[in-house]
Amino acid sequence: MNLDIETDYAWQMIRFACNACDLPNLADKIHLGWSNGFTRALGKAGKHKGQYRIRFAHRSWPSLTTEVKKNIIIHEACHIIVLEIHGSHEGHPHGKKWQWYMHKCGENPMRIIPRCLTPNLKVQRKKMVKLMHIVHVE
Ligand SMILES: [Zn+2]
Predict the structure, then answer these.
(1) What's the CA-to-centroid distance between 1 and ligand 1, angstroms?
(2) Ligand 1 centroid from CA 132, angstroms
(3) What would the DSSP string read from start to end of 103-123?
């Protein structure tokens, strides 16, 4: 996996989401990283030491399609957007507010993917998994 290319793509999608939600300056406040330690998540978003942070699962990334990566990146960006606008995840992190921003970005919040796309993750033994359940907030 070419990390520079994947990082560039992630930034493009984060900027796209911030722009779509009328927060063009928000992307500059986000720190982006990759983790080798995620065993149950493809991505995580939250606040770390006062700064917004999004991280993706380095080991799982190469097996994902571009379309799925896009959904995951925007999924995480929308968590940060909810944090920025409302100050918290507002109860359920995948509740109505988060779903509303996902729709605003043109993404399906309930996106389902085949389990075989995530060979490195310890997730339920179902054939299909909801992305929402393997992309977490910190
Ligand atoms: Zn989430």
Answers:
(1) 24
(2) 6
(3) HHTT--TT-EEEGGG-TT---
Radius of gyration of the chain from Cα atoms?
14
**Per-residue pLDDT tens digits for 36-93:** 988 888 999 999 999 999 999 999 899 899 999 999 999 999 999 999 999 887 778 8
Look up residue 63 and give its two tokens: 């097996």
CATH fold of 3-137 reads Zincin-like (3.30.2010)
CA of 64 to the centre of ligand 1 (A): 17
pTM: 0.90
Find the 76 Cα to ligand 1 centroid distance in Å. Answer: 6
Measured distance CA(70)–CA(3) in Å, rounded: 15
From start to end of the chain, where are the E strands?
A: 30-35, 43-48, 51-57, 112-114, 128-130, 135-137
